[in-house]
């Protein structure tokens, strides 16, 4: 048996790889699980030993990618990306063209330096709202949002995790490390060609909506009452002049002084201590306002010094005796020292203000109290209390610091030649030390599925090389490739990688293709760096399917697209961008 496994190791290893690709395509198991099954097969058959398995953990790629995930999360946690997104809607009120240009600029710049999945997730609701304001079908904007983020991600080494992964595997296979901006000239050609297609053919090939259907808000808004404190910075200002009330997720409804309602936009409505502002806010903005301490927010009838308070979400059950009562009349407000910060209701916003809103079954409230008070409240059975809120307040005061740390990470590597692994880990330490995000935020930012997939595929790659699979594949392809000119070889590598990426996760394709093209380039006397860059770009150039790249999957669901919608615009994108990128690689590396 052992002799058979040894004599046919190359064929068996390639068969395992083929079965893995079929598994990725069928999606019976998550991609990370499928990769682990493949790695386990190589271990069981003896094609991967302990040293080979451990080499996956010593590769710089997964560590660097995890660190960059955390640095991107610090920009999100401090509200930097959110503030950039809000600026688009402000411009939209003045100029539709200006708003679209600003949106494209923000997506491009952010995606070149931050994980583009995070950028798309943050900008998704902005694009939907922008489409409604400009009376443009959201189907015309959501696919371009994903495509632009993909194109911009190719402009720097840190723009996508795929770039970092390919660079890490290439370095492990003997190539010199890639600089952050080494691929930028090629990336700019890729970006320009892709944008040209979107501008020239996008309005023709992108789908039209079958009619605008009113959609519910992507994030529930909470009704709350905000009271202006004595000596607060807001005193003496108009509502529109208070930065905390002008955020994207906040909408002021009314302003009261005593029992008298004032016009929010009236120049005579300068805020005074004690004024009550009724507004709706998304959960993150509501918690940010609460933690800022600049306003008194919500309703609290009973005072009790009981220690530190925490946020909780309480859902009204059908047997709650307070159903039909106003918030200010709820019995548990007089029994428990808790504060009702906000109220939300599925499908509609209660009102007209927090104090007079009447409870209904299913309503959700944000309540603050000590752990003991919240436990007692939950024990009553009238409310289902959840203290594990996943939404945290913004840490906006640390936003400039998060930006400065990311810039320092980039410049240290690009200008002074410090390895990106080192600078990114130092950056992670800095954002944690200065409170840009918490340790839990950092753990949540590291996508366990992505990192597991990468490490498992690195094991598969090591097993494939050890079993002779890579060498056998190169030998099989050599008669076809030896007659190809360098340009056609680059183009074939690019297109093969791109096609595989459309049906298989790009991390798996990148790990397998990188050592393969290095071996091909070495045997044919062509700079393998050029072929590695072709893999790098081809693995990111997933335009023709919603499953090849995560941002495509996100907008596919949000925009209710059909699979064919991606094919119509994606196939021309793949072909034209592929040719343009291959020409750039050829002239940059092989001439």
From TrEMBL:
Show where the RCK C-terminal domain sits.
Answer: 211-295, 299-383
Looking at the keywords, is Repeat present? yes
* Cellular compartments per GO CC: plasma membrane
Which Pfam families does the UniProt entry name for this protein?
Answer: CitMHS (PF03600), TrkA_C (PF02080)
Tell me where in or outside the cell this protein is found: Membrane
Domain of life of the organism encoding this protein: Bacteria
User: Which molecular-function annotations from GO does this UniProt entry contain?
Assistant: monoatomic cation transmembrane transporter activity
Statement: the UniProt record of this protein carries the keyword ATP-binding: no
The protein's UniProt keywords, in alphabetical order, are: Membrane, Repeat, Transmembrane, Transmembrane helix, Transport
Name used for this protein in its record: RCK C-terminal domain-containing protein
Classification from the root reads: Bacteria, Pseudomonadati, Pseudomonadota, Alphaproteobacteria, Hyphomonadales
